[in-house]
Amino acid sequence: MLIQLALAALLIASIPLALILVVSNDPNKYRKLVWVTLFLTFDLIMFGAFTRLTDSGLGCPDWPGCYGHSNPLLAHEHISAAQEAMPTGPVTVAKAWIEMTHRYVAMAVGVLIISLMAIAWWRWIKSRHVEIKFRPWFPTMLFLFVCLQGAFGAWTVTMKLQPVIVTIHLLLGLTLLAMLTWLGARQNEHTPVAAGGRALAFPALAGLLLLVLQIALGGWVSTNYAALACGDFPLCHGAMIPPMDFENGFTLWRHLGKTADNEYLPFPALTAIHWLHRTFAFVVISYVAWLAHKALKDSGLRKTGCWLLIVIALQLVTGLSTIYLNWPLAIAVMHNGGAALLLVLLVMLNYKTRLAPAAVAVAAAAYAPLS
To answer: What is the pLDDT of residues 289-301, one digit of tens each?
Structure first.
């Protein structure tokens, strides 16, 4: 089974690898591989949201295979029996395919990250430790990190979707995306950033931390199925501050839908989870919009700032739409994708404000031969 799973991962990963090596005209194949890996990781996060929102996380209740097999076709008898016993339960043919497809793509991302690490080490040794863009320490960290992410993926299944494990799995996936963005930024050429733009280094870091906290709250909403705990807006159950149970809602170590005492989770606990995520969203939106406005004033940051404003507006629209339209699946997945895209943009903004070339230094270098 493990060999078959490895072959499936290699097959999926071979498609982008072949496109990069054969079709792409970019002379910097490594840079292209970094960005393709980032794109596939973004797709994996989106598909992970789809898996979670369709309640397919236990579509195959074991790991890494499905009832001990490498694909749902071979496990069809077991899946059909489980579906017949519980037609609306966690195990159905469709959910099994969704869950296993998510695992296949995750393994393919792992193969691509191993490729990044191997190429970086090879180029670093070949260049006698000269080529800075191929320093292998960061790709090696990516490899170790993806192994950790795989372990939490296994625990997500074996611990039956325990909310804290699922939320950590989500946050680790987004951290992997952020690390790939930083690595990708290191491969690109950047427009010089003026002193005013570089002064945004600390505000950009604060914005990134605020977003991470908001994503964690959003993950807690999703993993506890609290998205519809407040069905109205801007009020919640007709009140600005409705009855809420923060103690049970934010007890981390407990089973899905249960309190720490193994009682059913009261509805005010779900309300507290939803209300806090909704309320904090306006803090994040306001801050990121201000940060993007500041970034627009610098030519080196203008493009990133513009995209931040666009995505933050889309996040507001999709967030409100999930309430007014009763949580349609496509919009919910888009909302998760928007959060991931905001993370990419804020990581890029942090990189540029710190490590992009300074406009003053570039200008001085340009005029040096004339002096």
So the answer is: 999 999 999 999 9
